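Customer escalation, tier 2.

The customer says the design service returned an amino acid string that "doesn't look like it belongs to this structure." They asked us to rerun it and document both sides in this ticket. The original structure tokens are below, unchanged.
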């Protein structure tokens, strides 16, 4: 049995490791003026508009208003707007991004340590690596925040099992709902697992009561926005089997070592081989996980979590009430389950050291790749027209003028989703200028 001194020493050492890795995450966010994250500038603008409406009574000449309901995709708008009370719009967006990545890091670490009953350096490396997933590169700010909440909530449910405080579960559910519907479903995975493994009618009633506030918000949104008539135009419809194959074959892309952002970085042969090799390892791990889970008569917590997550990935519809490719959003959680399975299945010290070193190399390559891309993004000296001509009509540096427009109070292309409602005339810009 380990002494209290050794346990305290381990906690201190891991605390230092966590601070160092989160410091590296913060260094990436605040070392560059511009971050090449696809939708990031638009969500900063949403937050800026929310701040102006709520704290400065400025509706931009009647162009913007707030919806009379709380929809998913609202968290980024609200929190960035609140952060802007004491920071500039871009700094507020970066603070929100840092909050999201810290939550994902801590949530990933907690889930892995609880599922394996181990505290490993590899889990800190995996959590750090998970901060820079494809979801971050695409700038999915609300989903990032919801994913962090869902992971922390999942860790809480896994730790306490059927003895969870349902009031706390209810708060997690409301937060996940307000961030993204997929994160709400991710939170439901461990809760459904607890119900299946510890079935009790009283536990079921407690869970239902915990979800009442979030379900009421969802129903109010559903009927107020009239999602039954929501258009699915713009999506290329495929068969159910094609959609299933797309999702199941997509999951390595979420955590691939090298990122290709807006044509700034064209991966070479080494990067491509690394991506394919990493994907192959994940596929092999997934197959072994499934086979072992089927053969194992004693169904563990990890088995239940894996089965439910895989079913959600495979059978989620291509389109649901304004949400496209729902199954893709579960792949991050599936990836964490694969890591937990590998460390639970291969407890040999040499195997675990090998996996830790391999994951550390992949994480270092990924971070170096992203840093290089971002440096190129911030130091490019081409004019927009030159870039358009060289890239055959695609402008990979369009976000530069988005950031400039935010800083100078000019309008930025915004999403027709989330908390903001566009009530102005079609020929009127938010700041009063005409087309």
């Amino acid at each position: 049995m380990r002494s209290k001194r050794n346990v305290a020493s381990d906690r201190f050492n891991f605390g230092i490791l966590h601070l160092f890795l989160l410091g590296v995450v913060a260094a990436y966010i605040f070392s560059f003026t511009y971050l090449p994250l696809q939708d990031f500038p638009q969500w900063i603008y949403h937050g800026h508009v929310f701040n102006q409406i709520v704290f400065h009574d400025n509706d931009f000449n009647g162009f913007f208003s707030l919806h009379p309901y709380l929809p998913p995709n609202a968290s980024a708008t609200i929190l960035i707007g609140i952060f802007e009370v004491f920071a500039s719009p871009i700094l507020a967006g970066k603070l929100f991004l840092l909050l999201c990545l810290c939550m994902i890091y801590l949530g990933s670490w907690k889930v892995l340590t609880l599922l394996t009953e181990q505290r490993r350096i590899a889990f800190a490396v995996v959590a750090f690596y998970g901060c820079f997933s494809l979801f971050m590169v695409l700038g999915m700010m609300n989903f990032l925040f919801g994913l962090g909440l869902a992971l922390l909530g999942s860790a809480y449910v896994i730790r306490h099992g059927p003895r969870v405080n349902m009031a706390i579960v209810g708060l997690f559910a409301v937060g996940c709902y307000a961030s993204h519907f997929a994160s709400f479903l991710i939170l439901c995975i461990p809760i459904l697992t607890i119900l299946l493994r510890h079935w009790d009618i009283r536990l079921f009633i407690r869970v239902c009561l915990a979800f009442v506030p979030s379900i009421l918000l969802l129903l109010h949104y559903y009927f107020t926005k009239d999602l039954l008539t929501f258009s699915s135009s713009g999506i290329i419809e495929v068969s159910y089997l094609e959609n299933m194959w797309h999702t199941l074959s997509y999951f390595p892309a979420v955590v691939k070592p090298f990122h290709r952002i807006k044509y700034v970085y064209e991966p070479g042969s080494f990067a491509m081989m690394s991506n394919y090799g990493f994907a192959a390892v994940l596929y092999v791990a997934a197959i072994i996980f499934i086979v072992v889970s089927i053969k194992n008569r004693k169904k563990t917590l990890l088995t239940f979590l894996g089965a439910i997550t895989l079913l959600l990935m495979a059978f989620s519809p291509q389109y649901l009430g304004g949400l496209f490719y729902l199954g893709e959003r579960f792949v991050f959680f599936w990836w964490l389950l694969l890591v937990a399975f590998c460390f639970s299945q291969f407890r040999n010290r040499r195997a675990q050291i090998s996996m830790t070193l391999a994951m550390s190399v992949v994480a270092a390559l990924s971070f170096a790749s992203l840093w290089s891309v971002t440096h190129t993004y911030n130091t490019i000296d081409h004019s927009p027209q030159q870039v358009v001509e060289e890239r055959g009509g695609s402008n990979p540096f369009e976000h530069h003028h988005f950031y400039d427009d935010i800083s100078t109070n000019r309008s930025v292309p915004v999403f027709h989703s989330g908390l903001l409602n566009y009530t102005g005339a079609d020929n009127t810009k938010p700041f009063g200028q005409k087309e």
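Tier 2 assessment: The sequence is consistent with the input. The chain has one domain: 41-225+257-380. Residues 41-225+257-380 form one domain. Sent an explanation to the customer and offered a walkthrough call.
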